[in-house]
Specification:
Elements (H helix, E strand, L loop, with lengths): L4 H10 L4 E5 L5 E4 L3 H5 L3 H4 L4 H6 L3 E2 L2 H8 L3 E7 L4 E10 L5 E10 L1 H29 L10 H13 L6 E4 L6 H11 L7 E5 L5 H9 L17 H4 L4 E5 L6 H13 L1 E2 L8 E2 L3 E6 L3 H6 L5 H7 L2 E4 L7 H19 L4 E2 L1 H9 L5 H15 L4 E2 L3 H4 L7 H4 L3 H19 L3 H8 L3 H12 L1 H5 L2
Parallel strand pairs: 7-12, 7-13, 8-9, 9-12, 14-15
Antiparallel strand pairs: 1-2, 1-6, 3-4, 4-5, 5-6, 10-11
């Protein structure tokens, strides 16, 4: 039996994966596939005899690819949005009769909504992976303790740091030797938009006075006998785009204090032996363990420079004033040193208690050196308190003498909760491990580790 061509054509149109749309020369719809309702939200019988310009104006689809063909008489392809929230790729072609007269246009539309969604999701996943990859690289580069517990005075310090890190304001860090001024300066740099650029640390007390100027500002070719041919960049130029950290700023000679003041005022530097002004392109952070007001009174530090560097002043308290952080700091330093030497040694409760009760006049630096030496030289995995190792008798110190039985038991409980939370870092896991309710675990975490950890639990 012979099948008519129009029957074939009908089946092809009805089963086509693409939406087919035909218009005449005035833009009136003369045919549309039955599936148009799913794509455009209007049944095929309603779509026929409507005008594409009206449909476009009503937002049924936008833009109208067939309307474009009416103007150009050429093939056109567009990405089309519909009122149903779909996204199509639509291609339209001019139709000519046997005499070559233009009689209308036909378009084929394919739904790419899901493809667009998958593309956006893949792009978002790629961006997220890149973000975390950069974060991981930054953490690997960082040699600082995790300090996952910050409370009391240091919480206030880090609150100021979080506010100023993103601003190119000059910061002055003050505090006793060893409190972690260089660590905090690096933290500010890593939290800033300059983190991808150099962090240059300069100890103003460690460079001979005769070399200080050329080290800081660089020098031109032939500036002095023995100078490198072609000249050399100084620390300020080397820190381009990043941060220069001037530690022990009080040790800077007076004649260089004048030059530094000029740099801060004019935001330019001049190499030794040169006269060309070079734009300053780095952030400046200064630090000292000296009383600068006293140095000003003694005429060894310029008052005008002090006011220039003292825009944001951050005082870092010594660790003897941060007793609430001592146990956490000890565990952080222990983990850091174990990782450095690929070891797995731990301190006993008695040893942690003893460490946390010392004043450590050298602050974090002294504590780190003591823990490092002890871990390296200890024979056992669990390091117990030992009079010969510590060089002191385990006497009741001032802090322990003031403790009641309840106070002593609370100190031991805090030590235990801190250690267990490091292994089981959530109230659910901690409660399950210790055999207590989650509300009790929450209460202990809030009491000993701070409110912030509970909020992020």
């Amino acid at each position: 039996m012979e099948i008519k061509h129009d029957v074939f054509l009908k089946h092809i149109i009805q089963n086509s994966f693409d939406e087919i749309f035909v218009i005449d020369t005035k833009g009136n719809v003369i045919f549309v596939s039955p599936t148009c309702k799913e794509m455009f939200g209007i049944p095929a019988e309603e779509m026929v005899k409507q005008n594409v310009y009206d449909l476009e104006a009503r937002g049924i689809f936008s833009p109208s690819v067939t309307a474009m063909v009416l103007k150009t008489r050429n093939k056109e392809t567009v990405i089309q949005d519909t009122q149903t929230g779909r996204k199509n790729v639509a291609s339209a072609y001019p139709i000519f009769d046997e005499q070559g007269e233009f009689v209308g246009a036909v378009s084929f539309s394919r739904d790419i909504t899901e493809l667009e969604y998958l593309k956006k999701r893949d792009d978002q996943v790629a961006k997220t992976m890149l973000y975390y990859q950069k974060e991981l690289e930054q953490r690997k580069k960082s040699n600082k303790p995790s300090s996952y517990v910050r409370s009391g005075k240091m919480e206030k310090v880090y609150d100021v740091v979080s506010k100023v890190a993103g601003l190119d304001v000059t910061v002055l860090l003050v505090g006793e030797s060893g409190v972690g001024k260089n660590h905090l300066a690096q933290t500010i740099h890593e939290m800033s938009k300059r983190r991808e650029n150099p962090f240059i640390e300069v100890n103003c007390g460690a460079i001979p006075e005769t070399l200080m100027e050329s080290e800081l500002f660089g020098y031109e070719d032939g500036a002095f006998t023995g100078a490198k041919k072609g000249g050399r960049k100084g620390y300020f130029e080397a820190a381009e785009g990043g941060t220069i950290f001037l530690d022990e700023i009080a040790e800077l000679p007076l004649h260089l204090q004048v030059k530094l003041l000029s740099v801060l005022q004019n935001q330019t530097i001049t190499r030794v032996g040169g006269n060309q002004k070079i734009e300053l392109k780095c952030r400046i952070i200064c630090a000292t363990n000296q009383n600068l007001e006293r140095r000003i009174a003694e005429k060894t530090f310029r008052e005008d420079l002090y006011y220039r560097i003292n825009v944001i002043k951050i005082e870092i308290p010594p660790i003897r004033e941060r007793r609430e952080e001592m146990v956490s700091l000890i565990y952080d330093l222990t983990d850091e040193i174990n990782q450095k030497y690929k070891m797995n040694k731990q301190f006993s409760t008695a040893m942690v208690t003893w460490l946390s009760q010392q004043d450590w006049p050298g602050n974090v630096r002294e504590l780190r050196h003591f823990i490092e030496k002890t871990i390296i030289t200890a024979n056992d995995q669990l390091i117990e308190w030992d009079e010969e190792m510590t060089g002191k008798k385990q006497q009741q110190g001032d802090h322990e003498q003031e403790l009641t039985l309840d106070g002593y038991m609370e100190m031991l409980e805090k030590d235990f909760i801190l250690r267990m939370y490091r292994k089981y870092p959530s109230s659910v896991k901690l409660a399950a491990k210790l055999g207590i309710s989650q509300s009790t675990a929450n209460r202990k975490i809030r009491k000993y580790l701070g409110q912030e950890l509970v909020k992020n639990d």
